[in-house]
TrEMBL record:
Residues 2-283 form the Dihydroorotate dehydrogenase catalytic domain. It is found in: Cytoplasm. HAMAP family: DHO_dh_type1 (MF_00224). This is Dihydroorotate dehydrogenase. One of its GO terms (cellular component) is cytoplasm. InterPro entries: Aldolase_TIM, DHO_dehydrogenase, DHOD_1B, Dihydroorotate_DH_1, Dihydroorotate_DH_1_2, Dihydroorotate_DH_cat, Dihydroorotate_DH_CS, Dihydroorotate_DH_I. It comes from Desulfocicer vacuolatum DSM 3385.
Length: 299
């Protein structure tokens, strides 16, 4: 089931979410060979960062809670990864983050020269210039970072990844569109949440708080995509709790162009991309329609 996304022909409408399987060429190639249409790298930051101490991820059965902490070698320490990726025959999204507009611009300028097919701006991280406020909760901050990055990435399409913590995610998406974003990815993890071990009387995660992902957040993700579709004309990667083809169809009906897959890799294995695509294809055949027929149909 091929689909076109911002001029790029993809083998399927599925996308590997950032942070699931790293930046190693071999594993990213394996993901594509497993039926993934668009492969997103683990987020790249301005400086080396270890992330949080274990435990960082807890499986709740109906989803996960995690506080991995954006580990990154830093954008200046990935020459081997980029050299390997130059030999790829599949499209990639380079996900980047920063704690200020200047850091976003600096990382984006460097990364765009490595010729990823797309750059994803993880604006769900704290803005040090605004005392820890998430970029993605402010229309002004969202516009500023997208607009600044757009000036340095030349022709590389920009995808803004949004947080469900925004009071009006449609307004944030419109600000990103006005700033020059070419697409939206929604949503990042929900939260923060917390688990407490009642025997030791302490939080279970070392960082204490973490983001929620997996099937339990899918209704929130569907609502966010629905709101974004109403607010902008940009294509949307719908992400959050998609585990089956039916989940992906629901996200497409809310307005998504592509279906992002993250936690489902843990639940259904790396072949989850082919499984979801087959399930989507069967549903469409059973109902005598195409993806274009049902995109935004819930509206």
């Amino acid at each position: 089931m091929q689909v076109n996304f911002l001029g790029k022909n993809l083998i399927s409408p599925t996308v590997l979410a950032s942070g699931i399987l790293g930046n190693n060429f071999d594993i990213l190639q394996r993901v594509h060979a497993s039926g993934c249409g668009l492969v997103t790298m683990k987020s790249i930051g301005p400086t080396p960062r270890d992330g949080h101490n274990n435990p960082t991820v807890i499986d709740l059965g109906h989803g996960m809670i995690n506080a991995v902490g954006l580990p990154s070698p830093g954008y200046l320490h990935m020459e081997k990864e980029w050299a390997d990726l130059n030999n790829r025959d599949f499209p990639i999204v380079a996900s980047i983050y920063g704690a200020s507009v200047d850091e976003f611009q600096q990382v984006a300028d460097y990364v765009s020269d490595k010729k990823p097919d797309f750059i994803e701006l993880n604006i769900s991280c704290p803005n040090s210039e605004k005392h820890g406020m998430l970029f993605g909760t402010s229309p002004t901050a969202s516009f500023d970072v997208v607009n600044a990055v757009k000036k340095v990435v030349k022709t590389t399409p920009l995808i803004a990844k949004l947080t469900p913590q925004a009071l009006d995610i449609g307004e944030i998406a419109k600000a990103c569109e006005d700033g020059g974003a070419d697409a939206i990815c929604a949503i990042n993890t929900l939260g923060p949440g917390m688990l407490i071990d009642i025997e030791s009387r302490t939080p279970i995660l070392d960082f204490k708080k973490g983001g929620l992902s997996g099937p339990m957040i899918r209704p929130v993700a569907v609502r966010c995509v629905y709101d974004i579709f109403k607010a902008t004309r940009l294509p949307i990667i719908g992400l959050g709790g998609i585990t089956t083809g039916a989940d992906a169809i629901e996200m497409i009906m809310a307005g998504a162009t592509l279906a992002g897959v993250g936690s489902a890799v843990t639940y259904r294995g790396i072949s989850v991309f082919k499984k979801i695509t087959r399930e989507m294809d069967q549903w469409l055949k059973d109902h005598g329609c195409t993806l274009e027929d049902i995109r935004g149909a819930a509206h």
